[in-house]
Amino acid sequence: MISSFQTRAYFTAATCAISLSITLSVITPSSFFTNVKLYKNSFKQVRNYTKPKGESCLELTLWNKPLGLSSLNPISKLTNLERNMLKLTPRARSIIIGLILSDAWMNKRGHWNPRIGFKQSVTNFPYIWRVYNELAYLCSGPLYGGKTIKRGKIFYSLSFQTRQLECLLEIFNLFYNVIKGKPIKTIKPDLIHYIDYIALAHWIQGDGSKLNQGITLCTNSFSLEEVVLLINILIIKFNINPTIHKDNKNYRIYIKKSDLDKIRPHILPYFEKHFLYKIT
């Protein structure tokens, strides 16, 4: 007899194959909200999936490819063993590094494991959907909507949060210092061992803006010392020569056109079409 846990583990692997044949990409926010059945249908197909004769679970997973929606998404609570089985692929780790450098955040309470949160404007739906589809296997549900009122105007957003997972401790310790019980984001020298073209692509998509045929990276939340460290990491890892631009009391990183031309072929495969204007 197959236990409940074995069944869930098998469905998790099977989902990797399902995601290759089910097209879940959506191009507009309105079509996302009007096609909620898409989630339900995909989950139903995963549950009803039967393993082809002679195939093993290992044959269902392509190494370091987007995992897509997981059969664990609609399950709100996992056992400790199930949670600990969720690990970061190299691809997912790089994406998270880029997100943390830009707009994502991490929460950690006491002895609990950390989780990642990410929010984007509804106008950036194609990008957050792409990111969510990459990291959905770490989450317990679909994207959720929200709204804020600024200067009398209503702004709509989409967000997701991961589960509280042990595998995220590595990222949390890389980016955060806990001071008086509060996590403070910082830049540490060890980042040089983690950042790659995937991380750089997501950093630019989240915090980059086009300027004089180059790219400015918004690093307002970091100190001058941290920005200098980031520049040194970029010089060593990507053989480019960024400079520091001061904006009021904040410091930003500028990547000139010649350096952007150098890195563009390497980051282009990881760019959502919605944000291509930033590097073209």
Condensed summary:
By secondary structure, the chain is α+β, with helices and mostly antiparallel strands.
Which blocks of ≥5 consecutive residues have pLDDT under 50?
A: 1-53, 55-59
Structural class: alpha+beta
Quick one: CATH superfamily of the largest domain?
Answer: Homing endonucleases
Question: How many individual helices?
Answer: 10
CATH top level label of the largest domain? Alpha Beta
Give, in spatial order, the strands making up the sheet with the most strands: 1-2-4-3
Radius of gyration: 20 Å
**What is the percentage of strand-forming residues?**
15-25%
- Separation, N- and C-terminal Cα atoms: 56 Å
Q: Can you tell me the CATH topology of the largest domain?
A: Endonuclease I-creI
Mean pLDDT: 80
Helix and strand sequence: HHHHHEEHEEHEEHEEHEEH
Q: Specify the overall morphology.
A: globular
Total beta strands: 10
| Proportion in helices | 25-40%
CATH architecture of the largest domain: Roll
The domain count comes to: 2
Largest sheet: 4 strands, antiparallel
Describe this structure in words.
- This protein is an alpha+beta fold.
- It has helices spanning 4-21, 29-33, 37-47, 80-85, 90-101, 125-135, 169-175, 197-207, 224-238, 257-267; strands at residues 105-107, 115-121, 144-150, 153-161, 176-179, 182-185, 208-211, 214-217, 243-247, 250-255.
- The protein folds into 2 domains: 4-169, Homing endonucleases (Endonuclease I-creI, Roll); 187-274, Homing endonucleases (Endonuclease I-creI), CATH 3.10.28.10.
- The protein contains 10 helices and 10 strands.
- Strand 9 and strand 10 (250-255) form a beta hairpin.
